[in-house]
Amino acid sequence: MLQGLAETGYVIIPNFLGLSDTRNLIAECVARSEEGDLRPAAIGRGSGKNIQPEIRTDHIHWLEPGNLSESQTLYRDKMEDIRERLNRTLFLGLVELEAHLARFAPGGYYKPHLDCHKQTKSRILSAILYLDEGWIESDGGQLRLYIDTTSGVNGPWIDIFPEPGKLVIFVSAEFWHEVRKSSRFRHSLTGWFRGRELVN
Ligand code: OGA
Ligand code: MN
Question: Is the dihedral of CA 10, 15, 18, 23 positive or negative?
Answer without folding.
Answer: positive
